[in-house]
From TrEMBL:
Subcellular location: Membrane
Major site of localization recorded for this protein: membrane
Listed name of the protein: Fatty acid hydroxylase domain-containing protein
UniProt-annotated stretches for the region Disordered: 282-304
Example GO BP: lipid biosynthetic process
Compositional bias per record (Polar residues), positions renumbered to this chain: 284-298
InterPro entries: Fatty_acid_hydroxylase, Sterol_Desaturase_Related
Transmembrane segments: 35-57
GO function term, MF aspect, one: iron ion binding
Coiled-coil regions, chain positions: none
Gene Ontology CC terms, in alphabetical order: membrane
Domain of life: Eukaryota
Length: 304
């Protein structure tokens, strides 16, 4: 809760006039406890889990040609199956995610997430979110890799998430309750290392889930803006991990690709992409030869 409730008191404390966003924050949060503000995460997560996947469902309904961007076009889910997945996600939300949010506030107090004025600048928010994503990605990589080992309890825990060998947007948070708890650790480490404002924390929790939904969408959509993020994996990158399934020892990273590249766990994915590229080049070469009868050189396939 802010130590002041009026605009004059806030400006006197800061020694300057409040910006418009700061005035809005003061008006909204001045009489609310920090715990109440923290619990807004429940609302944001519910909205993200419910609304964001509808974007991909809507694309399927409105744009029939969207199927050309589907990564595994042979696998289709009925709307009843998609809704069934959503119901399971909401069940886990009510039984695990919600209670975890309600009891985890002391850890937020301990690391120093603040609700006070002044608000962080846009540059501070971007810098902290960048740190959060990098820290989460690196930590998640090793936990995810551990979950795929025999002694990492794949059969008892992580296999639940891999029930969707062709992932769909609503299946991003679909997992065993123990995995939900375990993967909360990487999400917490970034804010613990670089604690910021509650607004930054809200953005972090929401954006991380939006990113997870995109990478589980099952669509490699060419107009997505995340394609311009350096080392970003995306839907095609993570889809390969689900396609291979429980035996997968490739593409463990949650957001970026550098960990898999450094530690050599993207070789299967890169090999598949190389073979597909050679196959497409061979088909293109054959097509050109059919148009020019006097060209008799066969396509050059190199499987290195």
């Amino acid at each position: 809760m802010l130590p002041y409730t009026t605009l004059a008191a806030a400006e006197a404390s800061l020694g300057r006039a409040l910006t418009y966003p700061e005035a809005l924050w003061l008006k909204y949060s001045a009489t609310k406890s920090d715990y109440f503000l923290y619990c807004h995460n429940l609302i944001f997560l519910f909205l993200v889990f419910t609304v964001v996947p509808l974007y991909y469902v809507g694309l399927e309904i409105v744009f029939k040609n969207i199927q050309v961007y589907k990564i595994q076009p042979k696998i289709k889910f009925s709307y009843s199956e998609v809704f069934g997945c959503y119901k399971e996600v909401m069940r886990m939300f009510i039984l695990v995610v919600g209670p975890l949010q309600l009891v985890s506030y002391p850890s937020i107090q301990m690391i120093g997430i603040r609700t006070s004025l002044p608000l962080p600048s846009i540059y501070e928010i971007i810098a902290q979110l960048t740190v959060y994503f990098i820290v989460e990605d690196y930590t998640n990589y090793w936990i995810h890799r551990f979950l795929h080992t025999e002694w990492g309890l794949y059969e008892k825990i992580h296999k639940v998430h891999h029930e969707y060998t062709a992932p769909i947007s609503y299946a991003a948070p679909y997992a065993h309750w123990a995995e939900v708890l375990i993967l909360g650790i990487p999400s917490f480490l970034g804010p613990a290392m670089a604690p910021g404002h509650m607004i930054t924390f809200w953005l972090w929790i929401a954006l991380r889930q939006v990113e997870a939904i995109e990478t589980h969408s099952g669509y490699e959509i060419p107009w997505t803006l995340t394609k311009y993020i350096p080392f970003y994996g995306g839907a095609d990158y993570h889809d390969y991990h689900h396609y291979v399934g429980g035996q997968s020892q490739s593409n463990f990273a949650s957001v970026f690709t550098y960990c898999d590249y450094i530690y050599g766990t993207d070789k299967g994915y890169r090999c598949q992409k190389r073979l597909l590229r050679q196959l497409k080049e061979g088909m293109k070469s054959n097509s050109e030869q059919n148009q020019v009868p006097d060209s008799t050189s066969p396509p050059d396939f190199k499987f290195d």
